[in-house]
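USER: Write out one fold?

ASSISTANT:
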Amino acid sequence: MANLSYSEQQERNIHIKLMKMQKELPEMCTLFFRGIEPVTQPRTRLAYAYDLTVFFSFLINSKNEYKNYTLRDFKLRDIERITTTDLEEYLEYLKYRPDEDKEIINKESGLKRKLSSLKSFYNYLFRTERIKVNPAALLKLPKIHEKDIIRLEYDEVAALLDEADSGDKLTEKQKLYHKRTKTRDAAILTLLLGTGMRVSECVGINIRDIDFENTAVRIHRKGGKEAVVYFGDEVEEALRAYLDERIHVIPCSGSEEAFFLSLQNRRMSVRSVENMVKKYASVVTPLKHITPHKLRSTYGTHLYQETGDIYLVADVLGHSDVNTTKKHYAAMKEERLRKARSAVKLRNA
């Protein structure tokens, strides 16, 4: 474990979770995961496992013929008996369902993901001739209505960084912790806003990954692929300030190489960074729900505004498909076109 990088440790943990879930799911699910392994990431297969658990639980709770089943009892013949109507009922079940002491609500994106998982499962079984009918093929995925990109304006970026430095708007209790974390917090926020990296890439950084001579940092993208991201003067200044503190901290076992440490001297987690961003953003921009991913969108927006080069934005953000980038920033292009309509005056007033 000590010799594994952060991304490798995360992948190992996902693999362990998936193996545990496979033992509870029907045997055909193991065949499915094995079959799609070459073309999917571990995190994707784990998401499929969760989604299939929900599907089989629905059958047990909603269909009399399966009420005495466990997840493990389902066989291929049961899968073949499922009709498109059953799957449409499943769609209704997904929209809202009580679960012990809480309510689970799936909106458009959640519904689409769960149904996509089910369609992939059925498609694999049908393609490999393990079942003769594929009712999921007739199931239409819910339409996703595109949402506006939530991002910070330039003045809001400055206000967020100022708040991380000062902590003036925090509660008295928060201010006590702020004294110990403000340099680290400012470094993380500056890094996210100045490079557009993902929060998982940020917390995975080790001390030896930072190259101040070339103002670059080595990160691990989705799937474990290494990449080098370059940073500017403001990011360098924030990182150096934190490093001056970091080198005097004795980390816990297993976190010796980690750059960003928690107050417990362990590698920062994704959740910790999410909570930290929320803490500062909630007092600076209370009407915007700002997350680390919104900081990434902020960087992408500002980079596109400055360069107008969508391919550069895609490359810097690590998008494997430029169409992903275009989908997110197409609205900005339309805004520029609308501004052009009144840029040229035909007559003097």
Summary: The longest strand covers residues 216-220. The first helix runs from residue 6 to 22. Residues 6-138 form a domain with the DNA polymerase; domain 1 fold (CATH 1.10.150.130). The mean pLDDT is 89.
